[in-house]
Each structure stands twice: as C-alpha cells, then as structure tokens.
Write the structure tokens for this entry.
Amino acid sequence: MLRALWTAASGMTAQQLNVDVIANNLANVNTSGFKRSRIDFQDVLYQTDRVPGSVSAKGSQLPTGIQVGLGTRPGAIYKLNNQGTFAQTDNDLDVAIEGEGFLQVAMPDGTTAYTRDGGLKQDKDGRLCTSDGYPLEPAITIPASAQSVTIAPDGTVAVTVAGQKEQQTVGTIQLANFVNPAGLSAMGRNLLSATSASGDPVTGQPDSNGLGRLQKGYLEQSNVDVVQEMVQMIVAMRAYEVNSKAIQTSDEMLQVANQVRR
C-alpha cells in the first residue's frame, strides 16, 4: 500500500480540525471578551532508509539521508490573548479590562474561574455577578437603596445612596493574571480555569503591578478578525483539496499497478 494514502489522509484530518477551530472563532465573533484560537501542526514519524552522515560502501560520508515523512498532526490549539476593541454601552455595571488581567468568579463547587467578559449583573442579593449568576470574587454587594453605581479605573466600586451627598465605597474589584495565560483551560460560558501550565494566579488591584485598568460603561469585544479568519478558511480548504488530490493520485497509481500483466 502506498504511504501517500495515509500521509495525505492525515493532512485532510488536520485541515478538518483547522476548519473546526476557525468555525468556532467565527461563531464567537460577537462574544464579549472572547479570544480567538490558533492551531499549530507538527510533522510525525519518518521512515529512514539512509541516515544523514552515514558512510557509503566506498568509504565516503554521505551529506544527506533518505527520509520519508508520514504526515502531520495537531501540535497545539491555543488562545491569542491580544486586546479586543471596546464597545461603549453606557451601562453602569459594564467594565472592560484595558490591559492584562482577568475578573475572578466564584463557582458553585468552591473553585475560582476567570473571565474577560465584564458584562456584570446583580443577583437577588445585590451581588455583582456574571450573566450565569456566578458572583465576583471577592464579593461586592450593591445596596438596594443605591441610586447610581460608579466603578473607578482602579476597581473601586462606589454607590450613591438616597439622602447622602457623598458616595459610599462598597468594595474593590480584584484582577488576576498568569505567567502563561495561553495555558488556561476554557470552560465555556466565557470562563477559564487555571491549570499547571498557566501557573498560579497573581491577584491585585487594577491599574497596579502590571494589571490593566477598568473602563466603566464599556465591554471588550472579541478579538476575532473576520477577514483574517475567512482567508485562513480558504487556505485550509485548498490544503484539504490538495491532500484529497494526493489520495486520488495514489489510488490511480495502485490501479495501474493492479493492471500489470505478465
């Protein structure tokens, strides 16, 4: 059996996965705080008929070898954490992170998740939470008597209460950052979890120690570039077609071999 059949088949499988990644990027083009993913490929095993640098029968050293590659495989799929554009919402509870860092979210099982989606809401107890009802960590509660909410660039949350002239501070939003943000594991629902690859979170107040500052009344948009993704999809499609052509050519060669008669 020709090796080209299996080699080209691995190429088709790889490009199918590539299209899957691109499709997910495009599907989340309007998802707040979403970071696009990219796939890296690796070549796989080689069949070596002659090792480079080996000695020939006549005693001379061969400058090159004979190695035949056996295809490709995905090496990694990782998120590109460059900044997305900001969209103004004029919502008092919407915040965008300008720079590095993630909002911290308390999960029902007691663990902490992380997100760049700053579309905050209030639950029945007045706590700031995500759209799924997961509260920020540390918890910040807005009093029922609050008439307006202000979120400063350094994360300070203050409210104006009826009958009081001065604002009352009710808490401070804390951000977390990682040595390797690409090592975070996607959980869905705009949430990420820490892994051994990401390292432990380093928490702090926004606009300090390398952490980004908060922009009230804005949301960070997805960093997906639709035009770039469409170009990548075209490239993946052509690569898929070329690999299918290699399979077709290998099949035709086998057909010719099968028709050989003495």
